[in-house]
Amino acid sequence: MIKAVILDLDNTLMDFMKMKKASCESAMSAMIDAGLPVKQKEGMKILFGLYDKYGIEDKLIFNKFLKKTMKKIDWSILANGIVAYRKVKEGYLQTYPHVHQTLIELKKKGIKLAVLSDAPRMRAWLRLAALRLTDFFDIVLTHDDVKKKNKPHKLPFKKALKKLNLKPEEVLMLGDWPERDIKGAESVGMKTCLAKYGQHFSRKGIKADYEINDFRELLRIVK
Fold first, then answer.
1. pLDDT tens digit string along 173-220?
2. Same CATH fold, 17-92 and 4-15+94-222?
3. What class does CATH assign to 4-15+94-222?
4. DSSP string, 167-223
C-alpha cells in the first residue's frame, strides 16, 4: 500500500526545460543587442554546452559564457542578459496541468507528500513558492539537505524515508529522469513511476514500475 509519494521538482511538477530554454533565448537576444559578437543559434549551442559541463543550476554560467566567447566579461552585456533571463523566467514558472488538483486529492486520501530535488535549497524553495506549492509537502529535501549528494546516490532517498518514517515499499517516487530518479529510488526498494510528460533524458534500459503521461494519473496508481 502506498502511503507517501516523493516528487522530483524540475520537469515533474514544472516544465523546467521549457523555462530554461525560453529564458536563455531571451538572454542571448539581449546580449547580442548589447554587443555580443555571436549569432543566436551558435550562442545557444555554446551556452548549453557549458550547462552540460558545469550543471544546469550554475549561478555564473553567463560569466563563463562571456569568457569563452569574448575572452572577458563585458558587464553591460552580462547585465542585459541576466535581466532578460529573469523577466522571461518569471513568466514560465508554472506547474504542469492538474498538479494542484491532484496534490489536493492525494492529501485528502492521507497520502504523505515530499519533494526530493537536486536543486540548491533556495532555488528549490523559490520555485515552490512561485508555483504556490509550499503548503502541500510534509518534507522538502534539496541538494543542500543531503550533504550535496545528488540522485541516484542512495543518501537522498534514505533520508527521505527516514523523515517520512515509512518503509521503502510504502513509498512511490515520481520523476522524469530514469538514470537519477528511477534508478536511485529503485536502489533503496521504493516503488517507481516515470513522468513521461516531462522526460528529456533516455532511460538507458531503466524501467519504472509505472509510467504516466499526465500528473493526475498518480491518483489511479495510489488507488
1. 999 999 999 999 999 999 999 999 998 867 678 999 999 999 999 999
2. no
3. alpha beta
4. -GGGEEEEES-IIIIIHHHHHTT-EEEEEGGG--S--TT---SEEESSGGGHHHHH-
